[in-house]
Description:
Layout: H1 3-12, E1 16-21, E2 25-30, E3 33-41, E4 44-51, H2 54-61, E5 66-68, E6 77-80, H3 88-105, H4 108-113
Antiparallel strand pairs: 1-2, 2-3, 3-4, 4-6, 5-6
Amino acid sequence: MRLDQLRSFGRSLPHTTVVKQWGENLVFKVAGKMFLIVSLDGQLASAVIFKCRPDEFDALTEIDGIGQAPYCAKRHWVQAADLLALPGAGFERLIRHSYDLVVAKLPKKIQATLR
């Protein structure tokens, strides 16, 4: 998936904000909570980090090019250093799922404002 596609898809999710954080990283957030990190190398995406379910974590990290995300692997975040490890639709599904997992953990009061 190309950087412009990642940006476009990430921004298409409801109430998403994007900030440049921790150097050259685009951090996609909903209600102030991150659900996607895109590491940049100039104008290219060099890695994508997203949250997954505990039962998906082992299967995803067994795929070549996907591993534990540094600093957040204990919370079931994975890093895809090889953006070809999954087809574009696969990344979109995983990013959407990451978004949904983060929204589900928000307080009910905040979730209600996102509808």
